[in-house]
Amino acid sequence: MSNKSQILFNIFQEILAASGNSSDSQSINETKIISVLREQASHGKGNNLGSVLVKVVNDAQTKLNLTIKPDSCGYCDGDFRDIIEAYNGIHGYVSLLVCTIGVIANSINVAVLTRKDMAAAPINRLLKWLAVADVFVMLEYVPFAIYKYLVLPETLDFPYSWAVYLLFHMHFAQILHTASICLTLSLAIWRYIAIKYSDRSHILCTERRCSIAILTSFLLPPILCIPTFMVFDIHTKNVSDVHGNPDIAYHVDSDSQGRLYQINFWVHSVLIKLLPCSILTVISLWLIKALYSANQHQKNLRNYSACPSGEKMAKRQHKADKRTDRTTKMLLAVLLLFLVTELPQGILGLMSGLLGLCFFKRCYNLFGEIMDFLALVNGAINFILYCSMSRQFRQTFRQLLVQRPLARFLPTASHSESHNQTTCKEKIKR
Questions:
Q1: What is the model's pLDDT at position 223?
Q2: Calpha distance 367→372 (Å, rounded)
Q3: Do both 241 and 102 map to the same domain?
Q4: 57/329: higher pLDDT
Q5: In this structure, what DSSP letter does residue 267 have?
Q6: Virtual CA dihedral for 190, 196, 201, 203, nearest 10 degrees?
Q7: pTM value?
Q8: For position 391, which CATH number holds?
C-alpha cells in the first residue's frame, strides 16, 4: 500500500504543480490518498490499480477544477488507439502462451533438424540455428513478461535489480533477434544461389560457407547493436517515501537529446530492419518467378514424354522438381512471414528517427506489444510451416516420436538374417 500511496501522492503533486498551485500540493498527504483508494474500492469500481488511478485522477480534476493541457503531439490518435491499448492489457497472458508453444515447437525443430539424414543439408543447418535463436529469445521473454505485465502493475516496485534485468533483456533480445534476421537473410540468399546457379551450387553452397554464414549471423549483431548499448542506461530519480524520507527509483532510459540517439534509430530501422526486408522482398519475388518457371518446365516435360524412355526421364525429373518446389515454397513462406513481422517495425523506427521523440512516445511505444507479439509468433509458427511443406521433416518427426519409444520392444535381427534380407533385396532389384 505504501508504494501505491506514494505514486498517487506524486500524481497529485504533479497535477497541482501543472496548474500553478504548487503550494497546495503540500496539503495532500497519505491519509487522503488512502481514503480515496478505499472509497473507489468500496464503490466497486474495480480492484485493478490502473483503473483506480484513472478514476482518482479524473476525480481530482473535477473536484479541484484543474485543466491539463492536451498533448500537442497528435500522432496515432483515433479509435484504433483504444483497440491497441485493449490488447496491451492482455499482452502478458498472450505472450506467455505464445512463448510456451514456441519453445516446445522450436525444441522439436532442433531435435528433428539434427537427425543424421536432415543435418546433412546445409539449408537445414541454417534452419536449426534459427530455431535455437528463437528458443533463447522466448525463454528470456518469459520472466520479463511475468514481471512487467503480471507483477509490476500490482506492486509498482521498480528496484535496481529490475532495472538491471530490463537492460539485459533489451540488449539480449535485440542481439538474438538480429541474429534471427541475419539467419533468415542467409536462408534467402542460400536458396537464391542454389536455384539461380544450380549448375555451380555444389561449388558455391559448401559446408564451409554455410558455417561461415552461421558464425557471421551471430557475430555481426553485437556490432550492429553498439549504438543501443551506448544510448540506453540505468537512470535514477529522486523520490520521497510515505514518511517523507528521500528515496531513489531506478529505470532504464536513453538520452533523447544526443546525436547518438538519432544514429541508433537509423541503424536499427535502416540497417537491421528495412535493408534486410528490401533484400528479402527482391529475393522473394525472384523465388515466386522461379516457381512459376518450374511449373511451366514440368508442363513441357509432361507434353514431351511421348516415348517410354522419355516418360521415365520426365517422371524422374518431375520428382526432383517437386522436391525443389516444396523446399522453395517452405522457405518462401518463412520469408513472407518475416516481412510481415519486421517491415512494420522498420517503418515505425524510421519515422521515429525522422519525426522525433513525440512520435516515438505516442506511436512506437503504443505498438510495442503488438510488434513483440508478431515477433514471437514469427518464431513459434515455423514448426507448422515445416510440417505442412516438407515431407522429409514430417517423416523424420514421425520416426522421432514413434520408432524410438518402440525400438526397445521390437525384435533385433541377427547378422545372418540382415545379410539374407540384403541379398534378397538385391535379387529383387535385378
A1: 92
A2: 9
A3: yes
A4: 329
A5: I
A6: -100
A7: 0.70
A8: 1.20.1070.10
